[in-house]
From TrEMBL:
The gene is Psph. GO terms for biological process: L-serine biosynthetic process. Catalyzes the last irreversible step in the biosynthesis of L-serine from carbohydrates, the dephosphorylation of O-phospho-L-serine to L-serine. L-serine can then be used in protein synthesis, to produce other amino acids, in nucleotide metabolism or in glutathione synthesis, or can be racemized to D-serine, a neuromodulator. May also act on O-phospho-D-serine. SUPFAM superfamilies: HAD-like. It holds the Pfam family Hydrolase. The keyword Amino-acid biosynthesis applies. The active site is at D20 (nucleophile), D22 (proton donor). Belongs to the HAD-like hydrolase superfamily. SerB family. Its EC number is 3.1.3.3. This is Phosphoserine phosphatase. It comes from the Eukaryota. Keywords: Amino-acid biosynthesis, Hydrolase, Magnesium, Metal-binding, Serine biosynthesis.
Length: 225
């Protein structure tokens, strides 16, 4: 098992950094915001808590939550325009610094492509570097389910994305940063996991992560040393 010093060295020399999005890159949980917007906020927030705690499979939780929300295409677009996701303090500077160092930055999320791409745009991350779940709609815009073939639709999906990135780009060191159990379980194949508690603290992650931070400034400082 790598020590904290070794993890810091991996982060400083990484050729790719993957960020979770909900409650990490942005302050909110996108699915909870969508649920509130569609009038089923409380029921869905409880399901999210159970999913993040790792007591139900991610796909089962996602299917159940979306079955309650049943968002239309119009509702998703209106949510993004009326209540755009709020970036977590320090993330813009951190991503910018990583880009300056030639590090590839990816957004790997159990959230929704349309919302995550909006976030990527604000951070100058190419949409090709976004891995997230895709909602499906009928021609009239009504909810038609989600794309179950996306790796991020399942437990262990973030690890599969990292494996794919290593195979495709021959990355030697890939770092995963996130607040939840699905982020922590992506290492391995990720080489370093950094737990993030700046928006919400997941007890299981805080207790088990060798490296746990509360603000992205802590990572900016690592890159200055």
């Amino acid at each position: 098992m790598a020590s904290l010093l070794e993890l810091k060295e991996i982060f400083r020399s990484a050729d790719a950094v993957c960020f979770d999005v909900d409650s990490t890159v942005i302050r909110e949980e996108g699915i909870d915001e969508l649920a509130k917007f569609c009038g089923v906020g409380d029921a869905v927030a409880e399901m999210t808590r159970r999913a993040m705690g790792g007591t139900v499979t991610f796909k089962a939780a996602l299917t159940a939550r979306l079955g309650l929300i049943r968002p239309s295409y119009e509702q998703v677009q209106k949510l993004i325009s009326d209540n755009p996701p709020q970036l977590t303090p320090g993330i813009r500077e951190l991503v910018s610094r990583l880009h300056q160092r030639g590090v590839q930055v990816f957004l790997v999320s159990g959230g929704f492509q349309s919302i995550v791409e909006h976030v990527a745009l604000q951070l100058n991350i190419p949409t090709a570097n976004v891995f997230a779940n895709r909602l499906k709609f009928y021609f009239n815009g009504e909810y038609a389910g989600f794309d179950e073939t996306q790796p991020t639709a399942e437990s262990g999906g973030k690890g599969r994305v990292i494996t794919h990135l290593k195979e495709q780009f021959h990355f030697k060191k890939v770092v995963m940063i996130g607040d939840g159990a699905t982020d922590m379980e992506a290492c391995p194949p990720g080489d370093c996991f950094i737990g993030f508690g700046g928006n919400v603290v997941r007890k299981q992650v805080k207790e088990k992560a060798k490296w746990y931070i509360s603000h992205f400034d802590e990572l900016l400082k690592e890159l200055e040393d």
